[in-house]
Specification:
Blueprint lengths: L1 E3 L9 E5 L7 H9 L4 E8 L6 E9 L2 H11 L3 E2 L2 E2 L1 E4 L23 H8 L4 E4 L11
Antiparallel strand pairs: 1-8, 2-4, 2-7, 3-4, 5-6
Amino acid sequence: MFLESGSIEDSKTNLIVNYLPQNMTQEELKSLFGSIGEIESCKLVRDKITGQSLGYGFVNYVDPKDAEKAINTLNGLRLQTKTIKVSYARPSSASIRDANLYVSGLPKTMTQKELEQLFSQYGRIITSRILVDQVTGE
């Protein structure tokens, strides 16, 4: 879960793309998102030592309307065995650095919505996820 307490002016052109296929190249990422509109910059994040893709990247559009269109068009797109997630990237800032919160011992019946309702009183939740056992589904 990621909480944001300060008010930060969000960039409306810079996107983060998560869950990219391991073998996707930066050129393919740029090509996919370039089909929506003009890209100012594009970066596939790689491990500094091995050069392996870390499965996410950033795409910065010239026009905020293209960024919004990319979210609406490409978020949830299935690429190979992955379903990509496209959302606005948050600026790097001292107020959101080290703001990840990991919670264990949640009731097995807790839903995503219940989790967010529980924690939203403490600040704006940017993203949250309940980890699920792939075998049992719990």
